[in-house]
Amino acid sequence: MIKKISYKDQVYDYLKQAIIMGEMKTSEIYSEQMIADKLKVSRTPVREAVLQLRFENLIDVFSGRGFSVRPIHFFDVQQIIQARTAIEGAGLRALIIGLDTPKGQETLQQMEKCVKQDMPAKLSDENNYSFMQLDKSFHMLSISFTGNEFFIQIMNMMQTRLEQAMFKALDKQKRPRDAIGEHEKIYLAVSRRDTDGAISALADHMRMTEFILKEKMDD
Q: Is 57 left (phi over 0), alpha (psi -120 to 50) or beta?
């Protein structure tokens, strides 16, 4: 069945993309009515989307005034990368242990398709938003395999915050191409059932991400 997307989800997706792409500025205050008028919806779905974004630490809400985009600093990035590496490492271990199961094989096939087909196909896009969504999908595969809802929820929150910092860093084509290679190393290690190699490849990928962002961001 085709799932109907609610107004709240549509507003949430619009605002999240605008935040990640820098179209909504940290220096400005936005009102729910302003967003509702722009999107031609009532304030209710906007209010619901705003509450979700606040829960995900993407915005700050000011009673009676509106909300603003929460800035992200390099210290935040360091903490996110540290936490992500730990959680995703656990996911990779679980995936390799369960690789012979139907779900494990399906997850491995999705990894391969992502690095060999989907991500290369997005290199020609005018902006890198769609590439970043595929990057997120790749990293979520091993996490989703665990079935741990807390892992999934935390990873989604951290990934969106990291995307907020990464969008400008991906302006040039070189980084997306390099990132594909780094993802492929993770996939190949998983396919060989090399747990240490997969976790090492993930750590290398995260260190490179941190290095690039350190050059782009203020402390």
A: left
pLDDT digits (tens, 9 = 90+) for 6-56: 889 999 999 999 999 889 999 899 999 999 999 999 999 999 999 999 998
Tokens of 97: 């242990």
Kindly report the pTM of this predicted structure: 0.85
CB 143 within 8 A of CB 87: yes
Among 141, 142, 112, 133, which Cα is nearest to 16's?
133
Longest dimension (CA), the chain: 56
* Domain 7-69 class in CATH: mainly alpha
How far is residue 7's CA from residue 5's CA, in Å, rounded to a whole number? Answer: 7
How far is Cα 72 from Cα 164, in angstroms, rounded to an integer? 8
Distance between CA atoms of residues 39 and 195, nearest Å = 47
How far is CA 100 from each of CA 95, 103, 134, 145, 173, rounded to the nearest angstrom?
9, 8, 25, 13, 36
Strand segments (E) across 2-148: 59-62, 66-69
CATH 1.10.10.10-classified regions of the chain: 7-69
